[in-house]
């Protein structure tokens, strides 16, 4: 029966091949890396960043301006979608294929890069170029600083998360925007009765759900609650305030507070914004970066003044400061330590001369975003989005605590566990107690 | 008919003929063998080694003994992912096999309009899984999708937001994509069945149904096994479709083993446990392939054509 054995072995091989293919699948998804990763001519640096209006256009313009001014040391840009980029950049860095300039959110992810020696320490460079540092918001350096050293250049805009609402929807039910959490819960049945979803939510992206917890935790127990988690205190997630916040969010889910089918909506497709500006949903808790998109895609929704915005309302009896906010204190550009000296020089020159130069600052303001450059308030008056810009500026500047988004502040391992459990919580599959128990298991990882 | 045939010459003559030939043609296997070593064996060894280490995908790799295995095997998520994988496998097999068999038999008849139909049926296979997933996601969107657009309440379900519905949609899309492929296999297999068998059965007075169950189906035995093996082992590797369509959600309702592996490895930066899951995936795949092989009888190379 020699034939039978042989063929069985072939079969073994076939199935092994199929399964090993799975193991490779992750690596295979790395996409168009070869032309942009690491290589290129000596002085030309590579730069990866995110797609999506208005940021993509402004980033591209900045690169183009730099390339025109410096024909000898060009920067090649490659763009990625938000959620895809988060995975892609990690893989590329691990494989030694990182771009010269690494776009990021700072915090826990930057920490893993820094600890692995993958990004340049820019502390001394900022020391030599004090002018670059001094014109930026001091608060933006927190998420760029790991163990006292600066590993990234804060850039772009400050992006607090705020409560957007559709004024037309509120007119339909004759109600005012919520002043407290009690108002929020009262509004839910009123909107549902008119077949308007109280809140839009792109729940499949998971970090969208997380923003709710960030605010509820803060308003109930103050910024200390998450700080304890961040500091690695044992059982920090079991704080009574956190259990209460988790219960409240589940109450909101049970009361049909979120749009039907929220758990299959992704934020990357901007469907959550579309729900708000089409009037299918009345409110949306989201980052200020969505403003530009809603202005561009929502017809006259933004220009007619139908978009309302406010900071997250307080909760009766909560300990948190009403001015507290959470979000991105800036975006962060790091330099790969694997880049050639020439590429690093190009990148530093780019940071110094092109990033947040006047032309870029103007473009951000025009797009309705607040750059992290001091003294831009004066430019807001001329903008068609002056009110929104002032609101974002004041929310950011007056916040007693401007916390970084949890998934960015924590390590990737803890963040993934967090997002997983948040998705389960919103599906009502686990209780608040179970949630806290699961999350306590990864504190300090 | 088989009873009339003389016993097939087997044993020593066949083996020696086989042995004599294999010596001279062994080098023909070299390209396949090299590819197999480079893209299957070596990565597999790498994954096995990684499963005994601790690595975040960026920094240094540290040996960690059985830590990854312990954490993976104790995680209730593994049992859940295995169960989801198993469900997708069984459901998509049960859905695809009868349909592709029937379509294959139908298309096997040589007539012009069926040839055209065959080409149309084949179209889904040409589309990439990611494109399919994005399309279905848009169509099934509860607020902007087909149901909402046409105002048909029946279609206006939260298709990807409820556990069972999401799983059902997944099985449907998988089947929609792969039924053409399996139909094609069945079509050509049906065409291989000697016409004489059907002619003889007609003389014996067999109807169409009788022909199907007594000739077509038994003759397709090995095709069914081949097709089933491809479906079953292939379903272990469903990743892109699930990743784009549901992301493993809602919650973890469609978090199959391959997706679980990816999430652990590339999103949570736990390469050790992810490698352990990859090894489990390989073992499950091997086990299933061998099992199907056994179900197909001891020697699948034996001829069905004896006496014809």
Largest sheet: number of strands, sense, barrel closure of chain B: 2 strands, antiparallel
Helix-and-strand structural type of chain B = mainly alpha
Mean pLDDT rating of chain B: 85
Tell me the overall shape of chain A.
globular
Query: Biggest β-sheet of chain A: count, sense, barrel?
Result: 7 strands, mixed
* Gap between N and C termini of chain B: 8 Å
Give Rg of chain A in angstroms: 23 Å
Task: Please work out how many helical segments of chain A DSSP would assign.
Answer: 20
- Given as residue ranges, the uncertain stretches of chain A (5+ residues, pLDDT < 50) are 1-40
| Backbone structural class of chain A | alpha/beta
Write the element-wise H/E pattern of chain B from the N-terminal end onward.
HHEEHHHHHHHHHHHH
Average pLDDT figure of chain A: 87
Overall description:
The complex is a heterodimer of chains A (445) and B (308). Chain A contains 20 helices and 14 strands. The longest helix of chain A has 27 residues, at 2-28. Chain A is α/β, with parallel strands linked by helices. Residues 1-40 of chain A have low confidence and may be disordered. Chain A starts with a helix and ends in a 5-residue tail after the last helix. Chain A has helices at 2-28, 55-69, 82-94, 107-115, 123-128, 130-134, 167-173, 181-193, 207-221, 224-230, 240-254, 271-277, 290-297, 341-353, 358-366, 377-380, 386-398, 406-409, 412-426, 432-440, and strands at 45-50, 75-80, 101-104, 145-146, 149-150, 153-155, 157-166, 197-200, 281-287, 307-310, 325-328, 331-335, 370-371, 402-404. Chain A is globular, with a radius of gyration of 23 Å. In chain A, strands 7, 8, 9, 10, 11, 13 and 14 form a seven-stranded mixed beta sheet that branches. A five-stranded mixed beta sheet of chain A has the order 2-1-3-12-6. Chain B has 308 residues and is mainly alpha-helical. Chain B has a two-stranded antiparallel ribbon. Helix content of chain B is 70%, strand content 1%. In chain B, helix 4 (76-108) runs parallel beside helix 8 and helix 11 runs antiparallel to helix 14 (271-295). The longest helix of chain B is centred in the first third of the chain and has 33 residues, at 76-108. Chain B has helices at residues 12-25, 30-50, 67-74, 76-108, 112-126, 129-140, 146-150, 163-192, 195-203, 208-219, 221-236, 240-245, 257-267, 271-295; strands at residues 53-54, 62-63. Classes of the chains: A alpha/beta (445), B mainly alpha (308). At the A-B interface, helix 1, helix 3, helix 4, helix 12 and helix 19 of A face helix 1, helix 2, helix 11, helix 13 and helix 14 of B.
């Amino acid at each position: 029966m020699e034939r039978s054995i042989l063929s069985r072995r072939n079969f073994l091989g076939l199935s092994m091949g199929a399964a090993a293919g799975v193991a490779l699948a992750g690596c295979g998804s790395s996409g168009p890396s070869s032309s942009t990763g690491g290589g290129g001519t000596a002085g030309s640096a590579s730069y990866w960043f995110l797609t999506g209006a208005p940021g993509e256009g402004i980033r591209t313009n900045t690169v183009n301006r730099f390339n025109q001014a410096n024909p000898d040391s060009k920067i090649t840009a490659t763009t990625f979608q938000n959620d895809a980029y988060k995975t892609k950049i990690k893989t590329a860095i691990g494989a030694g294929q990182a771009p010269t300039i690494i776009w990021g959110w700072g915090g826990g992810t930057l920490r893993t890069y820094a600890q692995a020696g993958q990004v340049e320490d820019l502390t001394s460079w900022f020391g030599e170029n004090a002018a670059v540092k001094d014109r930026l918001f001091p608060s933006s350096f927190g998420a760029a600083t790991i163990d006292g050293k600066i590993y990234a250049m804060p850039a772009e805009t400050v992006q607090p998360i705020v409560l957007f609402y559709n004024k037309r929807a509120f007119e339909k039910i004759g109600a005012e925007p919520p002043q407290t959490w009690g108002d929020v819960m009262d509004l839910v049945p009123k909107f549902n009765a008119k077949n308007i979803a109280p809140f839009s939510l792109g729940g499949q992206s998971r970090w969208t759900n997380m923003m709710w917890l960030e605010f509820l935790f803060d308003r109930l127990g103050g910024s200390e609650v998450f700080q304890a988690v961040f500091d690695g205190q044992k059982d920090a997630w079991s704080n009574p305030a956190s259990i209460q916040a988790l219960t409240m969010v589940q109450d909101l889910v049970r009361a049909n507070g979120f749009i039907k089918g929220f758990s299959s909506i992704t934020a990357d497709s901007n469907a959550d914004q579309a729900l708000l500006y089409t009037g299918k949903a009345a409110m949306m808790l989201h980052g200020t970066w969505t403003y530009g998109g809603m202005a561009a895609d929502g017809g006259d929704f933004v220009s007619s003044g139908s978009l309302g915005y406010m900071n997250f309302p307080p909760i009766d009896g909560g300990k948190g400061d009403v001015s507290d906010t959470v979000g991105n204190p800036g975006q962060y550009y790091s330099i790969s330590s694997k880049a050639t000296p020439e590429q690093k020089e190009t990148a530093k020159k780019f940071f110094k001369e092109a990033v947040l130069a006047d032309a870029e600052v103007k473009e951000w303001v025009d797009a309705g975003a607040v750059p992290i450059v001091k003294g831009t308030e004066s430019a807001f008056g001329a903008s068609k989005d002056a009110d929104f810009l002032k609101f974002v500026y004041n929310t950011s500047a007056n916040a007693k605590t401007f916390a970084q988004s949890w998934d960015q502040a924590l390590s990737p391992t803890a963040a993934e566990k967090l997002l997983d459990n948040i998705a389960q919580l919103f599906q009502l599959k686990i209780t608040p107690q179970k949630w806290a128990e699961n999350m306590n298991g990864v504190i300090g990882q | 008919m088989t009873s009339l045939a003389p016993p097939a010459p087997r044993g020593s003559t066949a083996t020696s003929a086989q042995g004599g030939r294999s010596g001279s043609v062994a080098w023909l296997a070299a390209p396949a063998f090299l590819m197999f070593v480079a893209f299957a064996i070596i990565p597999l060894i790498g994954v096995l080694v990684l499963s005994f280490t601790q690595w975040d995908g960026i920094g240094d790799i540290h040996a960690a003994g059985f830590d990854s295995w312990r954490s993976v095997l104790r995680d209730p998520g593994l049992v859940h992912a295995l169960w989801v994988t198993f469900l997708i496998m069984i459901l998509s097999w049960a859905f695809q096999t009868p349909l592709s068999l029937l379509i294959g038999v139908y298309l096997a008849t040589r007539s012009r309009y069926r040839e055209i139909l065959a080409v149309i049926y084949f179209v889904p296979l040409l589309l990439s899984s990611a494109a399919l997933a994005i399309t279905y996601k848009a169509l099934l969107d509860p607020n902007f999708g087909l149901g909402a657009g046409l105002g048909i309440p029946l279609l206006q379900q939260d298709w990807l937001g409820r556990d069972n519905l999401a799983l059902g949609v997944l099985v449907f899309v998988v089947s929609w994509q792969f039924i053409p492929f399996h139909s094609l296999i069945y079509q050509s297999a049906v065409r291989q069945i000697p016409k004489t068998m059907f002619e003889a059965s007609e003389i014996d007075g067999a109807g169409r149904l009788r022909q199907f169950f007594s000739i077509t189906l038994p003759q397709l035995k090995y095709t069914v096994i081949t097709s089933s093996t491809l479906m079953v082992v292939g379903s272990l590797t469903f990743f892109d479709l699930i990743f784009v369509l549901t992301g493993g959600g809602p919650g973890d309702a469609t978090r199959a083993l391959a997706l679980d592996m990816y999430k652990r490895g590339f999103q949570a930066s736990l390469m050790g446990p992810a490698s352990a899951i990859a090894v489990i995936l390989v073992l499950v795949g091997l086990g299933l392939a061998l099992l199907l092989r056994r179900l197909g009888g001891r020697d699948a190379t034996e001829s069905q054509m004896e006496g014809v």
